[in-house]
Amino acid sequence: xxxxHDIGGMHGFGPVEREENEPVFHAPWERRAFGVExxxxxxxxxxxxxxxxxxxxxxxxxYLTANYYEKWMLALQTLLEETGTLSRAExxxxxxxxxxxxxxxx
Amino acid sequence: MSGHKHNExxxxxxLRVKAMEQLxxxxxxxxxxxxxxVADYFENKVGPxxxxxxxxxxxxxxxxxxxxxxxxxxxxxxxxxSGLQGExxxxxxxxxxxxxxxVCTLCSCYPWPVLGLPPTWYKSPPYRARIxxxxxxxxxxxxxxxxxxxxxRVWDSSAEIRYMVLPMAPDAAAxxxxxxxxxxxxxxxxxxxxxx
Lengths: 106, 196
Description:
Chain A is an all-alpha fold. Chain A contains 5 helices and no strands.
């Protein structure tokens, strides 16, 4: 199926940028994202193909520019909505609560 | 738990992951301790050292090498490495005539049990787009000049198969013990973007 993920052979990309001594995870949230992704599929009854497909359905600009684990989480959000597990609104409401708590303690 | 400083607001994505983890924990779908364990495992316990042990064994034991090339997953499991993203492994032998390199053009497939999680560049659009169109140019950027009389084969992972390259032993391998050989094998050599 055609899509932005079908990138093999596409023209227009520059050099492959590498990072010396790259860590496995670049920030604490990447570790959490990896673990959340690792367990959630089994918990909500989705498989790896569905996860990949959800990533492929991200908007092309997000697909090409977002952090790898950010793409995982945005795609997981789609699957959580589609399985009726959690809505985007619930996630964003919790984000607002967490952010307000932080400011209180800041 | 979180290491960020209080005067720096958390990024949107960090906050989103925290919210998702909390909500999924409350629903009993994930557990904080299990997340800690699996993240620690992939951060500290599995990595290209595993693949290097497989290569060192293949360099020192011809029977093992034959088993590895014939049916890789069981041969790799002999050294204790198996599991997720390594169920159906194929090992590609570099020779004087053929140089192999691996990619996943459609996403980020990678042989976790032997190499750990992939580096960012392997998952990046430039590598995925270019290694299949102009492999020699990309390999040269990595510092690997493949002679014109050596065929370059690029292997694109499918949904199930995971590839790993068996590099040729360098001259420096002569006379070394299997344990010493492990140090001569790099992650990039097993992806195919370095000689060994």
